[in-house]
Specification:
Length: 156
Amino acid sequence: MSKVLTPNDVGKTGSHQAGIAVPRQDAMLAFFPALDATQYNPRQSLLFRETHGIDEWALNFIYYNGKLHGRSTRNEYRLTGLTPYFKQHQASVGDTLHLGRTLTGRWTIELVHSNEQALPDETLVSQSTGAIEELSHTYETIRLSGTWSAVSRRKK
């Protein structure tokens, strides 16, 4: 999955949003773990590893569902915990955030500045074992709502 960052995403509008909004589309929600809507504001903590490094980032996938429970007007999915990552990588409007999974199920994250190559390298080195996790695929981009897109990968 990838998202072109907006002024709101990188804190340029002065808003106090809780993370970046995740569209409520089947293709997008299938990427993330299922959340139990019967619970109030269910969340899942996910550990993302940088594709070009060893840093790991704990992000939260949250379904703010207060409207369903009569507690607020919110009915939206968000990915939170990105502010430190964006600050460390000097994220700017127009940069692209890539979120992925390796063939072994590891969550990956990469920020591509708007003046850099658009797709990540084809391998990721495991910090724990030193093994190379295969990411060799062909890519197809599917435009979702707004600034999000899904990149489906087929084995070469």
